[in-house]
Amino acid sequence: MLNIYCPHCGEHRSEEEFHYAGEAHIPRPENPAELSDEAWGDYLFFRRNPRGLHHEQWYHATGCRRFFNVARDTVTYEIHESYPMGARPSVSRDSEEAA
Amino acid sequence: MTQRNRLPERGRVDRSRTLRFQFNGRTYTGHPGDTVASALLANGVRLVGRSFKYGRPRGVIAAGPEEPNAILQVGTDPATTTPNLRATQTELYDGLVCSSTNGWPSTERDLTSVVGKVGGRMMPPGFYYKTFMWPSSLWMTYEKGIRKAAGLGQSPSQPDPAEYDHMNHHVDVLVVGAGPAGLSAARTAARAGARVMIADEQPELGGHLLASRATISGTPAAKWVRRQTDALAREPEVTVLRRTTAVGYHDHNFVVLSERRTDHLGPDAGGVRERLHRVRAGQVVIATGAHERPLVFGNNDRPGVMTASAVGTYINRYGVVPGERLVLMTTNDHAYHTALDWHNAGREVVAVVDTRAEAGGDLPTEARACGIRVLTGHGVIEAAGGRSVTGARVAPLSADGESLAGTTHELPCDVIATSGGWSPVVHLTCHTGDKPVWSEEVLGFVPGETRQARVCAGGVNGTYALEAVIHEGVDAGKRAATAWGFEATEMRDLAVSVAEPSQDPSMKLFLVPHHKPVTRAPKQFVDFQTDVTAAAIEVAVREGYESIEHVKRYTVMGFGTDQGKLGNVNGVALTARARGKTIPETGTTVFRPAYTPVTFGALAGMERGGLLDPARFTPMHLWHVRQGAAFEDVGQWKRPWYYPRHGESMQQAVNRECLAVRQRVGMLDASTLGKIDIQGSDAREFLNRVYTNAWMKLQPGRCRYGLMLKEDGMVFDDGVTACVDDEHFIMTTTTGNAGPVLEWLERWHQTEWPELDVCFTSITDQWATVTVTGPESRNVVAKLCDDIDFSREAFPFMAWREGTVAGALARVFRISFTGELTYEINVPADYGMHLWEAVYAAGEPYGITPYGTETMHVLRAEKGFIIVGQDTDGSVTPEDLGMHWALKREKPFSFLGQRSLDRSDSRRRDREQFVGIRPLNGEAVLPEGAQAVENPSNPVPKRTIGHVTSSYYSAALGHSIALGLIERGHDRQRERLHFMTSDGRLEEAELCSTVFYDPDGARQNV
């Protein structure tokens, strides 16, 4: 069971307080009407399924009710960082490869 | 029966007290400190069970959790009896009653043993797959017989009255295992200031030191253990858990411990029987030690064949010598301890059979000096005897141990103890997916790399010399504490020295060869509990199973309740050998939680019955109870379902309630409806984005029905939202979706539109709602309220007013889910009961009738109103529902789900669409979920073109009605289809409008 740091509460709490909320950093297209079915379908349904680093959203459902981002390794389940909505991750594929 | 194998002294049992217990119907005695296994051995009981597949007689092999054979059903009370307990871990108490879980009709006379003898060759690996799977329809019949014969124990047949609970902990350092390494680690970490928890599965701390004759810096091991235990007890931040097994090691150092609190006291102990500790640890020290690995040879399952360390444990810890004459077979020096223990207990060591060409270490030398015969370069190739060992057939081995180098002779004996080395207990270190690695030096799998914050110490690393184990424990305690931010101090009293005997290298041997090839030799068991032999593994490999995971599944090796603790490494080694590969190339199977079986009681804890899930009650609940309402669970809410009057059936009650609403007036407790308060200067804009319809022009005092879609265009929720003022709205949601809708709003606000000034608060619990509906409803509410004008002109449909109802501040909504004139009165929850009673009293002259959710459903179905989640299932668009009117596509902002309504799939012509369904037989209520077919004479499988989503008998109409989703339904009005009922009949029905009652809406427009 993951131990997740909520950047809003400033604490580590157990996974059961949170809801997983999907892949992070997928902005809603500004003009959906202008998108082809295929492009809209990509936004709707297609998600990365990486082996390794994954940026994802979590919701502190039974806590502060805030959404935030987590950089997690899908193999080891290590959490590299939690960061608020709107912030950019400090751990990325590039930074991992550089390290 | 006397305890003929009990030594007059020695061990940790209290001989001053005698405990009586029953095993398989006979009474025996033992002492406090005994396990059932040690007491049975003290009484000379050899036969403890029958094997799973062949029904062969089996005896105690081990002295700990790895025991595969001595598996008990403990207790006879159908509520508290426990199956699958290891006799080696079951503490004795006075009056304990237990029996073997295997053996039918009895362990003494077992029918399957005849099958095993006669048909052994006919039961190859995969036997069950090959034999019983066809015809598959008979599997259920076979399975009963197989289960009965295999005897997997009896689960309790009545509710367990005992208490179980869970406890959560946060600790700095969790130490698993309280042997020398664990004790040293715990003391060191505690001294550094860490909050420490140490857990051990045994009733006493000390691990194998409880059965050791070693001295530590001149102190006897048991005394050293007591010192450490006392020192830990003095540390304020240390929690010691005995009889507590770490059963699962999960991600981020979440470890589950299962504590058995009362079973050792007997069935009447009271209190919490078992407790599950959910521990989040900063650092974990794994000090789980090692299990001795038996050698594989012919008939090695005969009662009397044991591991060497188990024999040593029974002698030293329990004062029990499990036989008269011992033959010990070993690949290493360590097992000589057992020969010396046996000799010192005054019984005969027939011989030590050492598979190595030479044995010149201190212990073999000591053994020889005691007059013990040491046969080097030999192996026991086969045990003689039937229900008990009577001899060991011994032959010289080739130098590599792969073949025999001479003829066999038999040594008479009644116990054969074997040691093929040790297997570190790496299970917990593997639960998070980390792979153990084979160490040629240790001749065992040791913990591999991990991302968990853990340190391993002692036997689990393959470190077996006691001095080194203690130093590793100290080091682990230091590392754990410092890694978690503490400063470690020197532990002078743990800087111990232990005189170790010199040791020769061990021999890498798993299977002792026989004159005959493996597939012809007497059965050489690898996994005792599942009856997997060396031959079975060879056959599996020969039949093409190469991966160790496949060999495991085909042979069922490791599938017992012991998960193959004793046999798995031998199995891996034999698979490697059969494939001509190395052990590292072969690898291990996956170790999964739980380490030892956990009861369902412990897993459930307090979360059973009424405590399984929170139950939510409206402020008027007690009234409903007093009226004898039947209740329905809606999410966590308890809602009145219907209010039966004396002798009424459900249908009669619902008919009466429906007619009361249509003809006079009814009242419904609608407090459970989700209510979300939305405020902010951008609240209106926000509604515009999440709802399909337009919100810019909704005036204060007005309300509007809204449809909410997921971004894929499918209906997610619906409800009425009221405008309080330009920056303040009250949204209602379906009862079950209150939480998800709030999360949905928060998600979009926080992740996409943080620039919008809006905030959301759940007010579901703060307001109670009484729905008053029916032609007389205006008269009823008007009686209770002076400050609202209820006239049609002043208070039109889809408006709301604030006022005082029955003395309470109220928000009254004129909306309708029944099609009748309706007022929904909301008051602060504390006034809910008051309002309800006031409405009931005011309505009595008009014959007001309380109604429940069933009547609510019928009334809304008569009007064709949808219930999200019943008439929709996440694959239904507003257009499928015929709700085009609720879509406002010209809004400047593309509302959630709008683009998806134009996807090619949403535009498919053959989508299932929402229709009314009227059975030709007006008395027949179609089952909800019934599938529709066009032509019943079509061949099977018939293509279905939709299904019924809602179906009721309508008292107002005098016939049954239904709603459903049917392919191209909107174009099929008046077409007839056939619906399959649950008893296999077909009902014919005609498709029609979804609005069955008052299609013009005249009744609510009054």
Task: Describe the overall structure.
The complex is a heterodimer of chains A (99) and B (1006). Chain A contains two helices and six strands; from the N terminus they run βββαβββα. Chain A has helices spanning 37-45, 93-98, and strands at 3-6, 11-14, 19-23, 53-59, 67-73, 79-84. In chain A, the strands form two sheets. Chain A has a four-stranded antiparallel beta sheet with strand order 3-4-5-6, with no helix packed on it. In chain A, strands 1-2 form a two-stranded antiparallel ribbon. The longest helix of chain A has 9 residues, at 37-45. Chain A starts with a strand and ends with a helix. The relative contact order of chain A is 0.22. By secondary structure, chain B is α+β, with helices and mostly antiparallel strands. Chain B has six domains: 19-150, 2Fe-2S iron-sulphur cluster binding domain, sarcosine oxidase, alpha subunit, N-terminal domain (Ubiquitin-like (UB roll), Roll), CATH 3.10.20; 163-287 and 424-494, FAD/NAD(P)-binding domain (3-Layer(bba) Sandwich), CATH 3.50.50.60; 292-420 and 503-586, 3-Layer(bba) Sandwich (FAD/NAD(P)-binding domain), CATH 3.50.50.60; 621-672 and 766-851, 2-Layer Sandwich (Gyrase A, domain 2); 674-762, Alpha-Beta Plaits; 908-992, Beta Barrel (Elongation Factor Tu (Ef-tu), domain 3). In chain B, the strands form 13 sheets. In chain B, strands 8, 9, 12, 13, 14, 15 and 28 form a seven-stranded mixed beta sheet that branches. In chain B, strands 40-41-42-39-33-43 form a six-stranded mixed beta sheet. In chain B, strands 45-48-49-44-47-46 form a six-stranded antiparallel beta sheet. The A-B interface holds A 1-3, 14, 19, 21, 27-28, 31-33, 35, 37, 40-41, 44-45, 57, 59, 61, 65-67, 73, 76-79, 85-86 and B 250-254, 280, 432-433, 451, 711-712, 742-743, 746-747, 750-752, 754, 894, 898-900, 902-904.
